[in-house]
Amino acid sequence: MQLVIFMKKITSIIMVFIILGAFLIFLNPLSAGTIHVYPGDDIVAKIGAAESGDTVYIHSGTYDISAYQYGIEINNPNVTIIGDDPSNTIIDCSGGSAICIGKINWGSNPQNTVLDNTTIKNLTLRNFLVYGIFLNGNNVTIENCKFNLMADIIPISGDICCVFGNGDNWVIKNISMNGNKVYGGVRFRVISGVGNNWIVDGFEFDRNEFKSNSTLYLVVGVGDNWTIKNGTANNNTFENGGTFYGLSLGGTSSLIKNISVSGNKMLADTSFYGIMLVGENSYGEHSSIINCTVSNNALINNNSVGLVYGIYAYCPYISVENCIVTGNTASNALTPVYGIWTPRASYNLIKYSNSWNNKDNWGQTIEGVGQGLEPGEGCISTDPIFAKSPLGDFYLSNSSPCVDSGSESSIALGLYNGFTTRTDGRWDTGTVDMGFHYQSNGGSETQYPPVGKILKILKENQE
Questions:
Q1: Which burial class, exposed, middle or buried, applies to 155 when counting CB atoms under 10 A from its CB (0-12, 13-18, 19+)?
Q2: What is the pLDDT of residues 233-291, one digit of tens each?
Q3: 3-state class of 162 per DSSP?
Q4: 415 vs 294: CA distance, rounded Å
Q5: What DSSP element (H or E) covers 242?
Q6: Distance between CA atoms of 138 and 151, rounded to whole angstroms?
């Protein structure tokens, strides 16, 4: 009997170890491995050899891949690539590589290589001829990456794109391209995607100079259920004209929230679309443009007529809410300048928004597509009274009529914790302010000491 009991105990212990081992294998598959890349290593070969499940760590340094026409090729799905930090982990194509990283289907490369579950983080990608990142695949994550064009790059076929993706369920977070000088006329796409369920959360495209006639698409997306939020395209200059498309989406159930497309200057013949949404919603689907600022954009010396749209939403079942579209101008008296335009329909809404000092604030005189929807509840047409800060030009002054004038609470819209319209950095509390909200570490506490603390300091000084 004791032997039987002992054998049962041994069997139970073995079964526990078997189950535990299976669980650990599930968490960390046998195929998963870790690859480290250091300066001096062949980064193209190391990443090219990564198998499904591998994680590649690229350590700080500058990696010149100009000798490789197709850049760093990812050859298997489910590969994670992580740099130390974009400030010191740099992939430099030096004008020799068409693409920095991904898998491009050109020449002898296999067609339609699908790279599901790819992750790329913490890198600076610079001086590519066509693409910074090019991927076909689902469930892709691109995070905390910078794109720079430092050299006088002559793009292939006149196209440059920072991120191109084809697939569903993409997440792109915290990417930037700031302070670049772009030579040669280009069709420039920062993010270009085809697929459903994309999230673009956090981008900066500020203070770039386009030296030749160029067309810019900040984000161009085709698909359903796109969300674009928390981004800026401010203070860019087009010295020889072109066309500016800030955001351009086509599909159903789109959300554009907390975006600023402001202070951009086109110094020759051109047209400007701040936010353009061409949707196909049907009953039960809805798109929204919420808390966006499209202001102080200017067409200067535009001899041809051209046109300016702040927000152009050619879409059924759409609402434009808590937006500021003000002070957009064109030097040519014949150039139409529209503030907010969306078709007249009972199921469309413009509410709690400020459109002011555009030639036609609400698109009432537009030709071709019909008069725009009249402003609804809570809308105003007055100077927003912007204030400048070292971090940006489109904060709201304390006396702004846009403060506490939105549709609902900042908490309900996700614009409370860490978001501000104030130069002192205080978070937006209570009723949401109209327009774009900058990120802030200022917190909800006042910048001034409480009264009790002031009295205590005065008393100590008197003693």
A1: buried
A2: 999 999 888 889 999 999 999 999 999 999 999 988 788 999 999 887 888 889 999 99
A3: strand
A4: 18
A5: strand 242-251
A6: 33
